[in-house]
Amino acid sequence: MKSQFRKLITFLIVIYLMILMYWMLLGFGRTPQEEYMYNLKPFVTIGQFLQVSHFTPRAWMVNLLGNIGVFVPFGVLMPVVFRMKLLKVYGLFLAGLITLELTQLLSKRGSLDVDDVILNSLGFLIGYGIYKAAAQYFKTSL
After folding, report:
1. What is the extent of the structural domain holding 30?
2. Is residue 91 in a domain?
3. Amino acid 30: pLDDT
4. DSSP conformation letters of 5-68
């Protein structure tokens, strides 16, 4: 049963990753830009969305909460599939995330933004916390 459960979770991660790649590279009307877009200064983009002059509820939700929430499933599901502790599974997540950010930069279909990495990592860590709480609740290492 556990093997079938892990296979199902692996399948769900692959499907979710494909959807996420579509969103990040093609969705939301993304088209290639003329210039490479990037931000390597932490909290610049986050700060812009928190300023009243840049604030709209939709922009705030998509850029701040969306960048957190969309990565929560990885924090919940990756430890189930890879059976790794936090630092190792987070390292694997971070490698994939940086690859995705670099793909956005090089394809000019988005931007490489250190603030996205921060927010996405926060989402992953919230998900990992949910995973650990569930594992403790069920007294197992899912």
Report:
1. 2-137
2. yes
3. 84
4. HHHHHHHHHHHHHHHHHHHHHTTTT----SS-EEE-STTHHHHHHHSGGG--HHHHIIIIIHHH
* Mean pLDDT, contiguous 10-residue spans, the chain (142 residues): 86 94 88 94 90 74 90 96 95 97 95 96 98 89 56
Which pLDDT does position 59 carry in this prediction?
A: 78
Residues 6 or more apart in contact with residue 110 via CB below 8 angstroms: 24, 25, 30, 37, 104
- For position 142, what pLDDT does the model report? 57
For β-strands 111-113 and 37-39, DSSP reports them as parallel
Q: Are 38 and 105 in contact (CB under 8 A)?
A: yes
Considering the domain boundaries, does residue 7 fall inside one?
A: yes
Please indicate, yes or no, if residue 142 is contained in any of the structural domains.
no
* Count of domains forming the chain: 1
User: Which pLDDT does position 96 carry in this prediction?
Assistant: 96
pLDDT at residue 132, rounded to an integer: 95
Backbone angles phi, psi at 135, to 5 degrees: -60, -40
In a domain, 61, yes or no: yes
Burial classification of residue 39, based on how many CB atoms lie within 10 Å of its CB (0-12 exposed, 13-18 middle, 19 or more buried): middle
